[in-house]
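The methods section describes the discrete structure representation at length, but only in general terms. An entry of this sort, consisting of the sequence and the corresponding backbone structure tokens, reads as follows:
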Amino acid sequence: MTSTPQSAEEVKGELAAIEQRFLEAERTGDKATFESILADNFTITRNGNNVTKAEYLSRGKAQKSMKRFFLLNLNLSLEGPVAVLNGLRVITLRQWGVDLMPAREQFTDKFVHRDVGR
């Protein structure tokens, strides 16, 4: 997030763009993008297990079956430097040359604004 004050809609738009970059990095296996987005203390919960940034990056590989994705029903909560964005990720997978029914995945992500090197 930028260091100048923003409206909630501007923050939501900026965080939605980060979510899109994250999904595109998952699709392509772009570790440099993950490195630029994720904080050192990043964790994600997958199948009930917490995964650290290092573990996530070591497992990261291109999700070649992910054809397209988009975000729906975004909600934003702001409290000081903390922003919580939640909504639905809709992901279409492609297998054997056929698009499968889109999967809907609820997500909640927490972002903390930090002035780093500014």
User: Anything to note?
Assistant: The mean pLDDT is 84. The radius of gyration is 15 Å. Helices lie at 8-28, 31-37, 53-59. The chain has one domain: 8-112.
